[in-house]
Design brief:
Layout (H helix, E strand, L loop, with lengths): L2 E4 L6 E5 L4 H18 L4 H17 L1 H12 L3 H25 L3 E2 L6 E8 L2 E5 L7 H12 L3 E5 L5 H13 L7 E3 L7 H6 L3 E7 L2 H13 L3 E5 L4 E5 L5 H13 L9 E7 H15 L20 H16 L3 E4 L15 E4 L16 E7 L2 H8 L4 E2 L1 E5 L3 H10 L4 E4 L14 E2 L2 E2 L4 H6 L2 E8 L1
Length: about 450
Amino acid sequence: MGIATINPATGETLKTFEPLSTELIEAKLALSQQTFEQYRKTPMSQRAAWLYKAADILERDQVHFGEIMTTEMGKTIKSAIAEVQKCALVCRYYAEHAAEFLADVSVGTDASQSFVRYQPLGAVLAVMPWNFPFWQVFRFAAPALMAGNVGLLKHSSNVPQCALAIEDVITEAGFPEGAFQTLLIGASQVEAIINDERVKAATLTGSEFAGASLAAAAGKQIKKTVLELGGSDPFIVLESADIEAAVATAVTARLLNNGQSCIGAKRFILEESIADEFERRFLEKFQTLKVGDPMDENTDVGPLATPDILEDLDKQVQECIEKGSKVLIGGQRLSDRPGNFYPPTILADFPPGTPADQEEFFGPVALLFRVKDIDAAIELANSTLFGLGASAWTTDEQQAHRLIDELEAGAVFINGLVKSDPRLPFGGTKRSGYGRELGIQGIHEFVNIKTVWVK
């Protein structure tokens, strides 16, 4: 796939872009290094002022940026605008707290003075996905820039206008030229950039394959990486749960971003005693959902981002059906319209050996499982190779503590929707990746943690 804006609601190619030449990439790398040498000396207060300004620009033009996202990857316009607002939030969070997070930490030793100092690394390459095309970038850029690093963005090839708009925001905010640059390049050009000695570290949000490739290339160069990869998040509902609240949240958890979220609930694990009631209520809500034009504020579910994603999702669903799984709603591609639309789908009663066992379903498809008790729920939840997020519903305090302790995930939300929040670290375990974004932990990923000892 080339670098292009292709409207997923219509299939129309709106704009194409040529990948950067080797010469232009070299010029951008050189500028990045040159800028870093001066930018690292910029007072924290000045960096914060620029980041506050970026937040103001995001809010000022939120509708415009939302429309770019909806046009390029199909998220509903209301969710796109909300994403821009969240980007403003993370900018303000790090503008306010970075000085505190990066302050020297004194440690008592036998020295006259000893402390830990946090210093920037240099140019950090961010390989970012299309599903949250603004948020994924800003949750990297805000802490990285406040730490004194400079950023290089290789965005997904189907959201080039988002990538360019983000660079424009940071430039308009006042950051020096070269502090944050978008590289319109293909995946085949990434390794050469990783190999360049001026690039000090890399972060990637995306597929397992992409993460493994980036980590392998960076590993050969002994460079730090942070990876946020896929998920097959469980949504556990136990007998003591508030079923009405659980169902309402479950619908949002599965269909957020047209079902294309790494931390979207994928596997709904229901204790047998409440499974019938949950299933009935869940199905009723799915039956009311409106699929259609993502620019229409009344639309609940828009198109999938690309034809390949649609094709892959449908293959998974059809394999489940062919092997004996039950379809409660949906399950067939929509052929009455152009674009990459797939209906909200609920599958249940999976025999062994279906894609529901281990694979991530990236689209509006919910998988329902029934278990006899909390032990079986935890065992099933942990049975995949992924470990990104988990949502669990119970009003029993002892059960809640067990779920928190025993679920293998980077985040466990009790009686709530799994989400990212600037105040809390975000990331996974197992094949969902390593390292953390956001919180104080996120800003410490791309700094040199220097020990200082003076006597």
